[in-house]
Each structure stands twice: as structure tokens, then as C-alpha cells.
Amino acid sequence: MLSVIIIPTYNESENIEGIVRDILNLECGVSILIVDDNSPDGTGEIADRLSREFPEVHARHRPGKQGLGTAYRYGFSEALDMGATCIFQMDADYSHDPRYIPQFVSAIDDHDVVIGSRYVEGGGIENWGLLREMISRGGNFYARMCTGLKMNDMTSGYRCYSRDVLKAVDLSRISATGYGFQVEMSYVCAALGFDMFELPIVFTDRRVGQSKMSGRIVWEATWVVAGLKRKYRDLNKTARRT
Ligand SMILES: Nc1nc2c(ncn2[C@@H]2O[C@H](COP(=O)(O)OP(=O)(O)OP(=O)(O)O)[C@@H](O)[C@H]2O)c(=O)[nH]1
Ligand SMILES: [Mg+2]
Questions:
Q1: Within 10 Å of residue 216's Cβ, how many Cβ atoms?
Q2: With pLDDT > 70 as the criterion, what percentage of the chain qualifies?
């Protein structure tokens, strides 16, 4: 049983070392795969140093910023090649508290996908401005309307997939590069009939460093999510369960 946590990074030099050490200090036997897009602030060099220090830490480098979604797609196939049995997604910026990792690891035994959810009982958000929370809640409302899924937090980027799920999903078809990626993955997993569980998490705003959130990412998510049902109508016909 090998759990691999994928951490995509772009300019996270102030966060990456702390988050990696905090995860390893949990001593829950997970490996970490950092996917850095040639960050100008030297995050990639820190990742390389950590990979030399800890055998559980692996660093991959892409030549330039290509978006979160493609970093995850790349990380998923690398983690599958490493033989991972469960594959996490996690941000480097401390929004995703490592203390939940053991709960994810135990929940993935009983479910195909575990989503860290801010919008179920026991979950929440700390230190976000009103506008940011409105975009997130509005985005989830919109995603529920467009997809018909009942999930409360489809845009959460703190999640864990079992190996079978990522083997079943045709990753080359996932087109969203930003936030829409989380919704597109959720939709495809549900359409394939996988069992998805929302684990309550408290999400905190990034401590340091700059957000990569942009109007372009929100716009991409808006049109990608609107087209999901149509794009994947073939999957709905072949789903194992509905
Ligand atoms: N490799 C790679 N990582 C990225 C890219 N864009 C964002 N990331 C990383 O993805 C994670 C989430 O990005 P954030 O900037 O925190 O975006 P966000 O969490 O949606 O926005 P905030 O809530 O404002 O922090 C962080 O670890 C980023 O460093 C990218 O193009 N390539
Ligand atoms: Mg963030």
C-alpha cells in the first residue's frame, strides 16, 4: 500500500519545505511527489534538495508554468507508474492542513474518492474574504446546477483517489487546467459510478506567497463546467452505477 501526495508548485519557496516536513512528521508512511513548473523563485531547487534528504520525497520539473490541471495529470501518471495505491492532491500553501491526511488514508479504504469538503458539517473556511468565499460557494452552486451532482464541495483541491479510479479515468480527455479541473474530475468519477465521500476539512487562506487565482481561471471553469454533461454523455451510458 503506497500513498503518494502530489503537490504542484509555482513560486512556493516560502511554503514547500515546511509543508513537506510537516507531512513527513506525521509519520504515516506517505510519499510526496512535487511537480514544479520551473518556478522563478527557486522552489524547484528546494524540492530537489528535499528529495536528496528524504527517500520518500520525489521532485519532477516541467519547463514552464502550464497550469494546475496539467500538473495534476502529469503527477497522476507518475504516481501510477510509482505503483501508488492511493493518490492525493494537495496545495503547497497550507490551505490544506496535513493533519487530515490520516483521515483521508483511512477513508479511502471504504471509498473510491475522498474529497476534503468545506461545505459539509464539521468543515469550514478560515481567513477568507467575503468575495473569495462568494466565488467559491457560487462556483459550487453553479457546478451543482450544471452537472446535477449532489456534492457539496466539487471545487476542493484537497482530495484522494484510489488507484482504480485514476486507471479508469481517461486523463487525456480532461481539458480544464484551473479550478474547472476539480469539477471535471468529480464529474467523470461520478459518471463512471465511483463512490465519492466528502470528508469535512477546515480550509485556511494561504499563509504566505501569492495566489495564482485569476479571472482567466474563473472564466475557463465557467465554460468547462457548463459543457461537462454534453462532453461526457458517452460515460453516462456506460456507468457501472448511477
Ligand atoms: N506546477 C504548477 N503548480 C501550480 C500552478 N498554478 C498553481 N500551482 C500550485 O497549485 C497550488 C494551488 O495554487 P494557489 O495559488 O494556492 O491557488 P488557489 O489555492 O486556488 O488560490 P488561493 O486560495 O488564493 O491560494 C499551489 O501549490 C500552487 O503553487 C501551475 O501552473 N503549475
Ligand atoms: Mg491556495
A1: 11
A2: 96
The DSSP call for residue 236 is H
How far does residue 110's CA lie from ligand 1's centre (Å)?
Answer: 29
Class level of CATH domain 3-238? alpha beta
Residue type at position 78 = E
Q: Give the residue extent of every domain in the chain.
A: 3-238
Distance linking the first and last C-alpha atoms of the chain:
29
- Band (pLDDT 50/70/90 cuts) for residue 241 is very low
Q: Which residues line ligand 1 (CB under 6 A)?
A: 8-10, 12, 35-37, 65-68, 71, 91-93, 95, 206, 211-213
d(CA 91, CA 101): 13
Task: Tell me which residue has its CA closest to atom 7 in ligand 1.
Answer: 68
Residue nearest to atom 31 of ligand 1 (CA): 67
The reply to whether the predicted model has a pTM over 0.85 is: yes
pLDDT tens readout for residues 66-117 = 999 999 999 999 999 999 999 999 999 999 999 999 999 999 999 999 999 9
Ligand 1 atom with minimal separation from the 213 CA: 21
Taking phi over 0 as left and psi of -120 to 50 as alpha, with beta for the rest, 95 belongs to alpha
Return the closest-CA partner of residue 91 out of 14, 37, 43, 19: 19
Structural contact between residues 180 and 225, judged by C-beta atoms closer than 8 angstroms: yes
Q: What digits encode the pLDDT tens for the residues 156-165? A: 999 999 999 9
Q: How would DSSP label each residue in 16-58?
A: HHHHHHHHHHT-S--EEEEEE---TTSHHHHHHHHHHH-TTEE
